[in-house]
Amino acid sequence: MASSESLVRVPYRSASVLPKTIPPLNLFRMLAHSPTTLPHILSLGTACFRDTSLSPYQRELVCLLVAKRAQCDYQWEQHLGPGRTAGITEDQISAIAAGEFCGSVWTAQDAALLGLLDASFENSQVVNDTIFAKAKEFFSDQVLVELLVVQGFHCSMARVINVFKVDPEQSGRS
Question: CB–CB of 115/146 below 8 Å?
């Protein structure tokens, strides 16, 4: 989207207010309006991307599922490239885009991961015992917790992006 077409609801902060190690993405420039929470958000985001036991493939499945379910085009575009790099196929990307989280493009483990996350999106109060048990067959307690933490982080970012109508990055990463 060209800057003249921007619908952003709050102006972006200058990239100069961001820590030098943080890329000047529109999302980060929006989050900079909250200087007391920004370092903590960045810390959690870093932990979600680098410090969990999730594989890059699993992490990017989480990101793309959240982007789809939250209807967050910004996140979708930002994670297509990393998702492909992590091994997510075009057929799998199409399946996520269509909301198909089981089927021949998924391994049983992938389907369990996506099924758990999709169910938690549907009703975070009550995830069906059968769905949870299926995920538990494949994942340790640590991974189960990390999946939901990473999902929660991305849901939070999607909320900021969507409410403030954060513009897509000009170059994208897809």
Answer: no
**Angle between the N-to-C axes of helices 141-164 and 73-85, in degrees from 0 to 180, rounded to the nearest 10:** 140
User: If you search the block for the tokens 């820590």, which residue do you land on?
Assistant: 19
Q: Contact at 8 Å (CB) between 127 and 116?
A: yes
- State the DSSP code for 11: P
- For 79-95, what is each residue's pLDDT tens digit? 999 999 999 999 999 99
Other Cβ atoms less than 10 A from the Cβ of 99: the count is 10
d(CA 118, CA 138): 16
In sign, the C-alpha dihedral spanning 122, 128, 133, 136 is positive
Q: Report pLDDT digits (tens) over 115-151.
A: 999 999 887 778 999 999 999 999 999 999 999 999 9
The tokens for 119 are: 């169910």
Which two structure tokens, joined as six digits, stand for 78? 């930002």
